[in-house]
Fold these 2 entries.
Entry 1:
Amino acid sequence: MEIVLVTEGGFCFGVRRAMKMAEELLAEHGGGVTLGPLIHNREAVSRLQEQGLRVAETVEDLKPGEVVMLRTHGTGPITTRELTERGVTLVDATCPFVARAQREAAQYHADGYQVLVLGEADHPEARGIAEHTGGAATIVEAPADLAGLELRKQVAVVCQTTQRLDALQALVHDLLPLVSELRVANTICDATTKRQEASLQVAREVDVMVVIGGKHSANTTRLAQICAETGTPTHHIETAAELEADWVQGAARIGVTAGASTPDWLISEVVARLGELGA
Ligand code: F3S
C-alpha cells in the first residue's frame, strides 16, 4: 500500500505567517488573545492555548490593556473600531491576500459600484470584506442568490479567498446579462487553487483519499468536497485517531492532503498511522 502525499497541502503562507506572529506575541507578552480561534484547527489552537493564548468569544470578553491578534481572515472597520474602543492593543495577522479583497471591495464601493461578495454569508472573512463597504455589499453564495436581488447597472464582484474559480465563473456568467457594467476582482487565493488542483489530481489516481483539517475549516471542507466529487472514497479527518482500518483495506494507493490550517505535525501523525495500517 502506497501513500501519495499532496505536497501543496498544509499551512499556507497566511496561516504560517499568523502562527509565527502568535508565537512571537506569546514570547514577547507571555500571553495574548484572539477573537475566535486563530485558525480553524483545534489541535493547533490547543497548543497555542497551552502557551498562554486566550480565545475570546465576543468583544465584551476582552479586557482593556489586552493584546488582541486579528486572525488571518481579517475583520472589518466596524469591528476594529469596537475593539479599539475597548482599550485593547491590536496585532493584525490578516492575510495580505484577504486584505487585498477588503481593499478591492472598499474601492469599488467608493467608485459607486454595487458590491457583491462571493462567499459564505456566515463566514467572518466574507463578513469582514462586506464591512469594508460600510455594510453596503451583499454576500452571495451562488448564482441562485441573484434571484430577488435588486441589481444596479454597475456591479462589482469580490471573492472570499477560499472560493472556487468555477463558482466565480458561474456567478459572472449569470450576472453579465443583468447589468450594463460588471467589474470582477478575482481575489481567490492562489494557495487555495493550487492545493485544490493538486489534491484533485491525486484523488483521481488513488483508491482512497484522506483529507486532514478542521471540520469548521471552509477550505478543508471544500477540499474534501472536490476530492469526493471524483468518485474516490474520501474521508475528512481532524486527527490520526479518526483513521479507520476498514477505509484502507484492499487499497493499493492512498492519497493524503490537508487544508491550509493543518499543521505539519498533524499530517506526519496521519502518515505514521497509515504506516501502522500497512501503508
Ligand atoms: Fe491567505 Fe490564502 Fe492562506 S488567503 S490565509 S494564503 S489560503
Entry 2:
Amino acid sequence: MTGTRRSFLAYSFALPSLARAIQQTASPYRRPKLKITDVRTAQVMGHGLQLHVRIYTDQGIYGHGEGTDAVQGGTGLVRMFRRFLVGQDPLNVEALWERIRTAGIFAGAQGGQYVAALSAVEIALWDLAGKALGVPVYQLLGGKVRDRVRLYCDSANHHPDDPQARPKLKEIEAMGFTAVKIDIDEAQDPGRWDRVNWTASNAEIDRMVKEVAFVRETLSPRVDLAVDMHGRYDATTAKRVAREMERFRLLWLEEPVPAENVPVMRDIRESTTTPICAGENLFLRHGFRELLEQRAVDIVMPDLQKCGGLLEGRKIADMAHTYYTPFAPHCVVSPIGTMASCHVCAAVPNFLVLEWHWISRLELWRNFVREGDIIDKGFVTLPDRAGIGVEMNEEAARKVQVKDTPWFEPGL
Ligand code: MG
C-alpha cells in the first residue's frame, strides 16, 4: 500500500517536471531567432504558369511556396518584396504579409499579379514556419477538422461523339474520384453566330445539355458533377442554362457570367435551383465580401495560390461560413501548392471539395514531388510532416521550367 502510494506520488511529481523539461529543451522559441537571408524564384509551365518561391534563412531551413495564373510578372514582384523580407523573422507571417500588401496599395496590391506573387511568398512563409516549429501547416491554421481532403477531377471528356470519352470517365471513377467537373463553354461551337458576343443560341444550349446529360449518365449517381462556363456568357444565357441544368442536380454551375458584377450573379442565383459557384478570379477577403453579403452565390471558390495565400483563404472560408456557404477552392497548381491548399481545406469546417486539374499530365504530377503521388483514391491525406509536407523533385520539375527564367538562383 505504502509502496503503491509512494510510487504514485513519485509518478505525479515526475510527470509535470518531465513535461516541463521536454518543453524547455524542445520549444523552438528557445532556439536563436530565425532570420530570412534570401528569396528566390523559379517558373514552370504545369497546368498553366506557376511561380515557385523559396525563402531561405540563416539556419539552413527554407520554405517553398507556389503562386499561379496571374504570375507573369511574378519574378520581378518577388524581387521587389525581398526588401520587406530579408533580415526579418519568418514566423511573423501575418505581419510580413500585411507589410507587403499595404506597401503596394498604389501599385495594384488590390488584386492581380501583385496578390498572386504575394500568395506564393505567404505559402513559402507557412512552409518555413511549420518546419521551424516542427508542425504541419494545418496545425498553425487552427488544427484539422478532417484527416483527408476530397478532390474533384477536372475532365475534358464530355463529348458524346468521342469514343474515348466514356472509358476515360469510367477510368476517373475507377481511380476513386467522387466528383468530376466539365467545361461547357465552347468557342468553336458551330451554333455561335458571333466571335465576340457569347449570347448562346438554342443550338448551343442543346449542345451543352447533351454533353452534361452524357456525363451524368456515364458516371454513377454517387459521383457529383460540377459544370464550368468560365464567366464567358451573358446574363440571359446564364439564366437559361442554369434552368436547363436543374434536372441534373449539379454540385454547382460555375461562373455562368464573370464574378465582378454581384447583383447580376445574385439575379442568376435567384432565378434557379441550380447551385451557383464563383470566385477563382477574385482577390483577398474584399473580393468575396459583397458576393457573400448579397447572397449572390451558393459556393465560394477562391484560388489560394492567387487570392492572397493560405491564411487569407482561411479568412475567406470563415467569412463564407458565417453565411452557411461552403468553400470549394479552385486549384490548378503542382502537388506542392495542392498540398498547401489541403492544409486549409483540412482546417476549415465548411470545406466541400478541392479541384484537381492534372489528369492529362499524370506522369508529371506523380514525379513533381519526392513523396510521389499525394492522391489516394480521390482524396489527399494530410501528412504529419513539418511544414507543407512535400518537397520538389527538381529533376522532374525542371523538365517544365519556363525557358530563359531563373531556377532559384541568388539575386535573380
Ligand atoms: Mg473555373
